[in-house]
Specification:
21% strand; Methyltransferase, Cobalt-precorrin-4 Transmethylase, Domain 2; elongated; 5-stranded mixed β-sheet; 2 domains
Length: 244
């Protein structure tokens, strides 16, 4: 019986994969890989390793989560050491918990090698700290995959608007306008600084800045496409690296 290892790939730069993650990739017999992993990291795999693309492409092809779980179990039961290679961190909107449960239900040994989460890393490489003494003592990470008001949304946007914390939005390019509208309607000052960092930690990284009321339009005008991380709060006005 093989072992399944969930490896977080970080925000895109292969240099941000942990040493343990690199070792797991190099030892794997089978690698199930996502769209947003650093592709160069797959070059660490053994020449005879089987690499299976199970990407979920927004608006395009998408591998069902049930199928991914099935493949993990199938290949591990065949005696293979399996790596599930995921962008960012597997436990931050990465469905890593679902995959571990599938392994546990099938009696498959599993382990986790955490990844650098884009929620903190992408703002950092753009010179935006998610907390800063004198500005904010907390940050909240939310998914923008579904907009406010959607039946599947569990976020209390009005409460978040009044929380006084930095707001970090992942997977929110398409829904950013609805999110900022809900925050402003909930009491957030529309002049609150905001920034969108696209392609964080990649050579193509770029930053768009505005305020909470205008950031969605600014991102649209700049033709921002996923992956991108939005930061809303006083820290978004900081530019500690000169928009590096």
């Amino acid at each position: 019986m093989g072992v399944v290892t969930l490896v977080g790939g970080g925000p895109g730069d292969p240099g941000l994969v942990t040493v343990a993650g690199r070792d797991a990739i190099a030892a794997a017999d089978v690698i199930l890989t996502d769209r947003l992993v650093p592709q160069a990291a797959l070059g660490w795999a053994k020449p005879d390793a089987e690499i299976i693309d199970v990407a979920k492409v927004p608006g395009g092809r998408s591998t069902d989560q049930g199928e991914i779980n099935r493949l993990l179990v199938e290949h591990a039961k065949a005696g293979n050491d399996v790596v599930r290679f995921k962008g960012g961190d597997a436990f931050v909107f990465g469905r890593g918990g679902e995959e571990l449960l599938a392994c546990a239900d099938a009696g498959i040994e599993a382990r986790v090698i955490p990844g650098v989460s884009s929620a903190t890393a992408v703002p950092a490489v753009a010179g935006i700290p998610v907390t800063q003494r004198g500005l904010t003592q907390a940050f909240t990470v939310v998914s923008g995959h579904v907009p406010p008001g959607h039946p599947d949304s569990t976020v209390d946007w009005a409460a978040l608007a009044r929380a006084g914390s930095t707001i970090v939005v992942l997977m929110g390019v398409r829904t950013l306008g609805a999110i900022t509208d809900a925050l402003v309607d909930g009491g957030l000052d529309p002049a609150t600084p905001a920034a969108v960092v696209a392609d964080g930690a990649l050579p193509s990284q770029h930053v768009v800045r505005s305020d909470a009321a205008g950031i969605a339009r600014a991102a649209e005008d700049a033709r921002i496409r996923p992956p991108a991380v939005t930061v809303i709060g006083d820290v978004a006005a900081l530019d500690l690296l000169g928009d590096a």
